[in-house]
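We examine the record.
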Amino acid sequence: MANLGRLLLKIDLDQKGSRKILYTLNQVIDSTKKVDDAGAKVARTFSGPVVQAFNQVKDIAIQIARSSVQIGSEFEQSMQTVAAITGETSQVMRSLENEVRRLGATTSFTAREAADAMGVLARSGMEAADLLKVTGEVLLFAGAAGTTLNRSA
């Protein structure tokens, strides 16, 4: 009979222990659900602004790419104009283009503006060798005098 009592007590203790384990597991599950719910709420709260920010960055990147293509094509057009006016060979045009790029990088004017100034000087009858020497001086004068490149050229 004592053995039966011990067995029943052990079963009761085991059941209470199992209940404690189940209770603890239920608490963990509830906590996990709360974390999931909180995570979902955070995701809902921030997904709108995050998506908006991403779209804004994407739109800016597209605008930059379009502007770069436009600037590049305008520069190429200006250099083609210089080539048409001067009638120079591709080797001489490479030298003129390198000078224009250098001026665009080292002055307050863009490479396209330098190419446009070179075109104005070429229209006045200046030879390619003189264009290489004078264009930089014209840009410096225009910058110092605060005038347009057309007037300075």
